[in-house]
Amino acid sequence: MVVGFVVACYTLLAPWQFGREAQRDAQQRAIDTSYALPPVPLTDLVPAGAEVGRDVEWRQVQVSGTYLPEAETLVRLRVVDGKPAYEVLTPLRTTRGGLVTIDRGWVSSGGQAVPDYPAPPTGQVSVTGRLRVNETDPQGRAVFTSQGHRQVYAADSRPVAAATGLDLPPGYVQLSADQPGVLGVLAVAPSTGGAPFSNLSYALQWLTFGAIALVAMGYFIRLELLQRRDRRSTAGLREAPLADRYGRR
Question: pTM of the entire structure?
């Protein structure tokens, strides 16, 4: 059991935390870079119909088009500022004829009921937001309709496309503040100011636990050997008088 625990610490648990640290560090660098670069047209980073890649996530883009409110979908079971909320995904048909999913932000639910919230503006609009990679619902739950609203469990354009029949490319644009149709603005992960992420601490802890387990195993093996030696010595002392007595007879 100890050997299995040590192997898990050094081959699974610590590397997993190091990997998470690297992912979060890369995400923070991408966010910091996005603040330093001006918004560019969507097609400069994501060609029409292409998927939003990790290499351009968080970059600021601009896109013009018309909202499609009939295809709007809510993302349920969200939490904003510690309170339950919905995110609102509204497809937009661009002026070039393509499609893109727009995350208009969040609305507080105050419970299970879907609250009233402003509809997207009609007519052509120009919006600025950040590119985001699709989330994935780990349970793969299906789209359903409740209270007159189509609902999903992850900010993911794929189930929206499947439910509406629209050819929405993977990924979406998260609206920035003061944009046409924006609701509650979703926060962008704040800068850590160079402070290490907690995943690095967790990784070092697993390495330490593995080392402690090895030292402890060595200590208890040594203790067991000493106890066995003592038992043999004690047994020898108990048998010696009998041997002498039989010898004298």
Answer: 0.71
